[in-house]
Design goal:
With 153 residues, the chain is mainly α. The chain folds into two domains: 57 residues, no CATH class; 90 residues, His-Me finger endonucleases (His-Me finger endonuclease fold), CATH 3.40.1800.10. The chain contains seven helices and four strands. A hairpin with a 6-residue loop joins strand 3 and strand 4. The N and C termini lie far apart (94 Å).
C-alpha cells in the first residue's frame, strides 16, 4: 500500500494533516507570533527558521561578511568590493595619507566628501578617524598643525 493510500484511508489529505498540526517538528507551538507563511503558503515555525538562519550564518561567516560589505559599499558609495580592492591596490596597498600598509582594527575605509558624496581614496582607520574628528575642516587642521609646531620638543 502506498503512502497516499494510507493517508486517504486515515481520512486526511497530506496538506490537511499538516494544517491540523498545532506544533512544529521540534515542538514549538504554531501561534500567529511564531508562524510565517512560505512562498508556497506552507506554515513555518519562526523559532526554527531563525535558529536555522543563525546556524547557517555561523557556518558561513566569511561569506556573510563579504556580502554585507558589498551591500554597504554599493549603497553608500556606488562601488563594488572589487573596485575598492583595486583602489587600495592602485595606492600600493597603503593608506593615502600615512602610507601604512596596516588598515587598522576596522579595515580599510573609503574616504569621501560628506558634502558632495564624491569618493576620494582609501584610508586606514586612524587617518579616517582623524579626518572625521577634524570634520574635514582644513582651517581647523591648519590650526592644529600650528599648535603642534608651537609645542614641538
Amino acid at each position: 500500500m502506498t503512502r497516499a493510500e494510507i493517508v486517504k484511508l486515515a481520512g486526511l489529505a497530506s496538506g490537511a494533516k499538516k494544517r491540523a498540526n498545532t506544533h512544529c517538528a521540534r515542538g514549538h507551538e504554531y501561534t500567529p507570533e511564531n508562524t510565517k507563511l512560505t512562498a508556497w503558503k506552507a506554515r513555518q515555525c519562526l523559532a526554527c527558521y531563525n535558529m536555522k538562519n543563525r546556524e547557517w550564518k555561523e557556518k558561513n561567516k566569511n561569506y556573510v561578511a563579504r556580502l554585507s560589505r558589498n551591500r554597504t559599499l554599493l549603497k553608500k558609495y556606488g562601488l563594488t568590493s572589487d573596485q575598492v580592492d583595486d583602489m587600495i591596490a592602485s595606492q600600493g596597498g597603503a593608506c593615502a595619507i600615512c602610507k601604512s600598509t596596516e588598515p587598522g582594527r576596522h579595515g580599510w575605509h573609503v574616504d569621501h566628501c560628506h558634502t558632495t558624496g564624491r569618493v576620494r581614496e582609501a584610508l586606514c582607520s586612524r587617518c579616517n578617524q582623524g579626518l572625521g574628528l577634524f570634520r574635514d575642516d582644513t582651517a581647523l587642521m591648519a590650526v592644529a598643525i600650528e599648535y603642534l609646531r608651537k609645542h614641538a620638543a
